[in-house]
Amino acid sequence: MLARIKDGDDTIAAIEFIPTAERMGLIHSIDLLVVDKTIDFLAEFPNMSNISVSINLSSAAFQNKTLLPVI
């Protein structure tokens, strides 16, 4: 799952908005959203035990005390 922002017909890549999200203190919300959406995606395939998923979280994710219980 790749994080992108849609702005009308334009797509903004993560490399463009992640630094700003980190500076503005919004990165924890983005990390939680990505984890939550990934878990929802995996729940759609309960019979597929061989699915592998990788999530790239920001380095700030490890400072977020609410993230580990979600995972």
Describe the structure.
Strand 1 and strand 2 form a beta hairpin. It contains three helices and two strands, in the order E-E-H-H-H. The chain has a two-stranded antiparallel ribbon with strand order 1-2. The chain is an alpha+beta fold.
Question: Summarize this, please?
Answer:
Helices cover 45% and strands 11% of the residues. It has 71 residues and is an alpha+beta fold. The chain has a two-stranded antiparallel sheet with strand order 1-2.
For this entry, give a set of tags.
alpha+beta, single chain, flat, 71 residues, two-stranded antiparallel sheet, 2 strands, 3 helices
Helix content: 40-55%
Distance between the termini: 16 Å
Class inferred from helices and paired strands: alpha+beta
What is the C-alpha radius of gyration, as a whole number of Å?
Answer: 14 Å
What is the tally of helical segments? Answer: 3
Give the ordered list of helices and strands: EEHHH
Largest sheet: 2 strands, antiparallel
| Residue share in β-strands | 5-15%
Shape: flat
How many DSSP E strands?
A: 2
Could you report the average pLDDT, rounded to the nearest whole number?
Answer: 84
- List low-confidence stretches: none
Walk across the major sheet and give the strand order. Answer: 1-2
